Amino acid sequence: MTDPDLLELLNRHTEAWNRHDLDAVMDLFVDDCVFEASGGDEVCGKRYQGHVEVRQAFAEVFESMPDANWGNGRHYGLAPDYGVSEWTLTGTMSDGRRLEVNGCDFLTVRDGKILIKNAFRKQRPPFDSRQ
Questions:
Q1: pTM for the whole thing?
Q2: Is the distance from CB of 91 to CB of 99 less than 8 angstroms?
Q3: For the segment 91-109, what is each residue's pLDDT rounded down to a tens digit?
Q4: How far is the C-alpha of 84 from the C-alpha of 41, rounded, in Å?
Q5: Is 2.60.40.1220 the CATH number for 3-121?
Q6: Domain boundaries, given as residue ranges, for the chain
């Protein structure tokens, strides 16, 4: 992939997430994709493998924060098949608490689609914005 193509893929990825368009997000991933979530009991957070598991994990993110937004996106191509997207996640949890936290995705690409999404974010707990 050329650098402009990779950066375009990273931009489309963030835009699809911000539209909460699960079909558009999944169209950017290969069938045997992997998602390593920022939290979980495993050393990698929590690992989801394959379109079905990854799609379900992404759907749960949208359900848990219906107003989630990955703002201030910055994208970098580090190699033809590897890039990084930085962002600030903001959203309201189902219990009304707000989340505002910086994070990034390390994305491995194969044949113009995402193979691995490895997510990281700061360990800042949600807060009650009503106080």
A1: 0.92
A2: yes
A3: 999 889 999 999 999 999 9
A4: 24
A5: no
A6: 3-121
